[in-house]
Amino acid sequence: MKHVFIDIDLEPADLARLRALPGVTIHESPTPRDYYKARPLPAELLRGKQIMLCKHVPENFKDLVDLEWMQIATVGFEQLAPLKLHETQIRVTNARGLYDTAIAEWNLAMMINLVRDVPGMFRKQQTKTWSREFPYHQEIRNKVVGLWGYGGIGRETARLAKLFGMTVHALTRSGAKPRTTDWILPGSGDPTGTLPDRVFTTPDTREFLAGLDFLILCLPRTAKTVGLVGPAEFAAMKPGSFLLNVARGPIVQEAALLDALKNGPLAGAALDVHFAYPLPPEHPLWEMSNVIITPHISGSEKSIYFRPRIGDLFHRNLVNYLEGKPLFNEVTKAEWRETCGVS
């Protein structure tokens, strides 16, 4: 018998499906649950639990003495580095795939907002000014969008961008390969890795950047990607191009971003991830008319689709775990090394 501890909200139907599985006993944490920070949980609730579903691990993680596998409800897992799980037998699976469609929609919405200067139109509306300026008439068709990173978010963005008549370029370390081990929403993304019009690898970074109208960062934060985009990368981009960041704020060098927005080549940016949370009111990005700031909401657990999707992922993984089959979205040793800088 496996004892499963659940520390997030699920749909009643999904909880019922889990309880109906043979060989498991489902336990739930006390409510209300806090989605934004870790909390301690009673030690007696954690002991004897072999499987856990959570967004944040409990502050008294050490009381999970029998833990074998943990499913987290986030894509990023760098927050787990202090636990040194790579040195244990505990398996970890993340939430890759759950937020792909929402974040890809944000990407398309922001490209349209930027190229048509929708914020500028809104400012005119606020002052009751009738204006038909040049940017307001533009479109994204035939523009080139570059996806730096071609995981689930990049692939779903590519699918939508192609529907809008855009040219899609992707930059990856080793090419666009089929996805076989990740949870994917049916009908979404690019499971075979065949949608990009052109795929670049790391040695071709400058060439990749030079041909873009939009650069979208959708790669993970690792020891190697912090500060990856700086003055040299912006200098390689053409004047009038745009940056979208749905990855992590520190992947971009802050001073270089501010300079590129003030002095070129960037015509604007849409940022859902930031250098501080919350972004302080005195930060210069707030005052830039060519910047759209959103508070890390492009994909989140507040979506009406979050509960059914995490319920589906966890149910599939739990069945596979009980049957000794591979798990979706399992964090590999290579990913631990790259993301958390561990050996």
| Distance between the first and last residues' Cα | 34 Å
Rg value? 22 Å
Major sheet: 7 strands, parallel
Order of the strands making up the biggest sheet? 8-7-6-9-10-11-12
Word description of this protein:
The chain is α/β, with parallel strands linked by helices. The chain has two domains: 2-97 and 303-340, 3-Layer(aba) Sandwich (Rossmann fold), CATH 3.40.50.720; 100-293, NAD(P)-binding Rossmann-like Domain (Rossmann fold, 3-Layer(aba) Sandwich). It is built from ten helices and twelve strands. The chain has helices at residues 12-19, 43-46, 100-115, 118-126, 152-163, 205-210, 231-236, 254-263, 306-322, 333-340; strands at residues 2-6, 24-28, 51-54, 69-72, 91-93, 144-148, 167-172, 198-201, 214-217, 241-245, 266-271, 291-293. The strands form two sheets. Strands 8-7-6-9-10-11-12 form a seven-stranded parallel sheet. Helix 8 (254-263) links the parallel strand 10 and strand 11 (266-271). The mean pLDDT is 95.
